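Quick check before the chapter quiz. The format below is the same one you will see on the exam, so make sure you can read both the input and the output lines.
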Amino acid sequence: MQEVTTADILAADPDVQIIDVRESGELATGMIEDAVHIPSGEILERSGELDKSRRIIAVCHGGGRSGRVAAALTELGYNADTLIGGMSGWEAEDLPMVAPGA
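Here is the expected output.
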């Protein structure tokens, strides 16, 4: 597991899977485009929804939960990383966000 920056995400292979592990109530501020919402508490039972052949970048509000999720997914055999600073950092850099489900 690695910690990646916002620049890493913007430059990432288009095949990367971005998963937003925040709780539903935290999504009102927006999500990274094409991110899939899987709350951190559901990640183990929903890990089968992820493609093991594709890199995963987990995102939360500040980076703590997504780090734990990326570590857990790595133990399950996924290539999973975490976004440093989470969506707080993404928003602080005024990067594009979309409404949940958009």
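If your answer matched, good. The first strand starts at residue 3 and ends at 4.
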